Structures are given as C-alpha cells and as structure tokens.
Amino acid sequence: MKYTVSMEIALPRERVAQLLADPAHLPKWLRGLVLHEPLSGAHGQVGTKSRVVLRMGQQTFEGTETITRRDPVDLHGIARESVVHFDREIVGEGMWSAARERLTEAGPETTLWVSENEYRFSGLLMRLVGLLMPGAFRKQSLLHMRDFKAFAEHGEDVREAKG
To answer: Which pTM value belongs to this model?
Structure first.
C-alpha cells in the first residue's frame, strides 16, 4: 500500500527541518509515542537504528526504525539545498514501512511538507488489516502532520490535548 500526504507549515524550511530533527520534540507532536531510543548511531543520522514504541488506543506497536536518508546531512547546509530529505524504514511484527519526507520552500516563511508512505504486510492478520483499513494509515499520517504543524506554529503539545 502506498500513499502521499502533504501539508503547508507557516515557518521557514530551516526551522521546520530543525524541529523535525530534534528528538527532544518528538513526544510533543508524535501522538501515541511511548518510546524512541537509539540502539546504534546518533539520532537522525543515516544508518541509526532506534527502538520505537507507539500506542494507538488499546494497540501497542513496537518496531525498529532505520534512518535511510538525510539530505543535507548538516542542517546548516539547508540554504544551499532545494529540498530537505528525511527517509526512514520501520520494521515490526508483520509490517515493514518506509516514509520519505520532503521539505521544500513554498514561500519565504512557508514550508511544504510532502510525506510519501509505503507499507508491506506479512501474516494473515496484518494483511487483513492492510486490506480492510487502508484509509486508517493515511488518516494517522495526516494526524501526525497536523499535530506537528500545531506544535511548530503554536507550541501545542499533544500530551496536553484532550482525547
């Protein structure tokens, strides 16, 4: 299953990239995050593997995230790049996913965030989930993007949100 979602954020691209790259901010906008801890490497760097635990309702997902691309490597080099890339893969029981995040300037104070997502499922239960609920994955991605936008633009923290 593949889909693409996008959103404009009313901040310069450099600031959006910095906020996305800072692990201290993850709990503020990544709804359901229980744990994100590096197993090897430095957070956000290509090749880094991290243990990720997310809780959605009564379901808990645990997987290993691997950073597969980050351009530019040094966020200070963003001004020379036309697009900022953050790519990662997550592997968990019965599921593999890849997210390709692209940040481009939509204006001097606006960033377009495009997220290309791909999921592959194994095992009967996970294949059924993928077949019966494909819209749920897209909806979850958009929720994370909206939460990040609210955090980045207004300082909203999902841990303080009701419901």
So the answer is: 0.87
